[in-house]
């Protein structure tokens, strides 16, 4: 009788370990899948930036420094994306979003540019990608939150270190990018 109880408890522990292991693997895979979706939209956005720069270059000649910074940031963000450095990529992507917003705001001062069919199409494509990217980031952040909770709570907390699983970063907007842009400075 005592042996049956001990064997039953051991069987429950083993079963619990298998279930926890499978749940942690499923959460890890969900995070990787969500990150893949974010990366696909980032790649799409990166591909649109050179076309946008070309479209606005001849109209916004006085904004050369902004356009050069945009291209430079795109290259850095693309490299971080290729190298699989999500924290650095998220930081650079935030800067890139801020600069793209500046380009859009400054384009308002150039009526010929605003009337350009090419610019309008690029702006619509970029808006569509930005909307999809925002949704993908929300999904990624939810997947990461679920994953981080699973590895920090029992029983996952006991098994995660043995599996080599650690916390994953969530996408956050840096404090300076949460502020409203100073339009006077942009058009000054």
From TrEMBL:
This is LemA family protein. InterPro entries: LemA-like_dom_sf (IPR023353), MamQ_LemA (IPR007156). It holds the Pfam family LemA. The lineage of its organism: Bacteria, Thermotogati, Deinococcota, Deinococci, Thermales. SUPFAM superfamilies: LemA-like. It is a single-pass membrane protein. The keyword Transmembrane helix applies. Residues 56-83 form a coiled coil. Transmembrane segments: none annotated. One of its GO terms (cellular component) is membrane. Keywords: Coiled coil, Membrane, Transmembrane, Transmembrane helix. Belongs to the LemA family. The keyword Membrane applies. It is found in: Membrane.
């Amino acid at each position: 009788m005592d042996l049956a109880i001990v064997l039953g408890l051991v069987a429950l522990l083993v079963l619990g370990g298998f279930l926890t292991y499978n749940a942690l693997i499923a959460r890890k895979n969900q995070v990787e899948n969500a990150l893949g979706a974010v990366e696909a939209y980032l790649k799409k956005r990166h591909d649109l930036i050179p076309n946008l720069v070309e479209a606005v270059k001849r109209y916004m000649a006085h904004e050369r420094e902004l356009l050069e910074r945009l291209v430079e940031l795109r290259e850095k963000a693309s490299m971080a994306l290729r190298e699989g450095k999500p924290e650095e990529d998220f930081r650079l992507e935030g800067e890139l979003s801020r600069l793209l917003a500046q380009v859009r705001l400054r384009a308002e001062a150039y009526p010929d540019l605003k009337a350009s069919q090419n610019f309008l199409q690029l702006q619509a494509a970029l808006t569509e990608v930005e909307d999809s990217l925002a949704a993908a980031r929300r999904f990624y952040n939810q997947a990461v939150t679920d994953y981080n909770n699973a590895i920090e709570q029992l029983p996952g907390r006991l098994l995660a270190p043995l599996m080599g699983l650690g916390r994953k970063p969530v996408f956050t907007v840096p404090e300076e990018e949460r502020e409203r842009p100073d339009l006077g400075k942009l058009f000054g």
